[in-house]
């Protein structure tokens, strides 16, 4: 079993993992959150959510100021007081302009084309949360309305603009080529190692295909039962360090930490 001490680092996806897929609660995980805090074990959010969504959530989770990875790795925050974004960034606006040119050949909609109320309606978020989800830095959420057979053509078209497509728990995401949760986690691990003088043992938890690069990067991986049609497939030889949960959402999150850590308590 993994020692439950401050040399550990927990890296977690949010929607469908720490947060319930339907109502975004984390009640089932709250006991473990308190236990991690008591043992001074950092909890790093690694999510498709924006920084504007993650920073208020960190406060509610009691981990304000912790490092986090936003927009599927398109933004990495190394910790401390991150400024709250009030407007979408210039790079995000440029990305949306590129996507608008591709709508001549493919049928899809981006979050920038919806109002806060519309995003709230199809995500289940509050109006405030929906507004925060639209304050983006470097990636766009896409609702694919075309044939699935055209996704490969869409990927090829995006690549011509140095962009890539990844599938989340419920939506597609367009982001800069070469970015992702695994690349972002590697950057964060390097930063922490230089700051602290040692490498931490990592446990990662996620439920979607976009979590695979992060789950391949960590020492121990928890694949939470998800709702995506596409299974999470990991390319790693150490199957003994990978656990697939029977339960979804925060119950699966708790189940995963119970599996790797419970006997250490």
Automatic annotation (TrEMBL):
This is Mannosyl-3-phosphoglycerate phosphatase. It comes from Pantoea wallisii. The keyword Magnesium applies. GO terms for molecular function: magnesium ion binding; mannosyl-3-phosphoglycerate phosphatase activity. GO terms for biological process: mannosylglycerate biosynthetic process. The keyword DNA repair does not apply. Keywords: Hydrolase, Magnesium, Metal-binding. NCBIfam families: HAD-SF-IIB, HAD-SF-IIB-MPGP, PRK03669.1. One of its GO terms (cellular component) is cytosol.
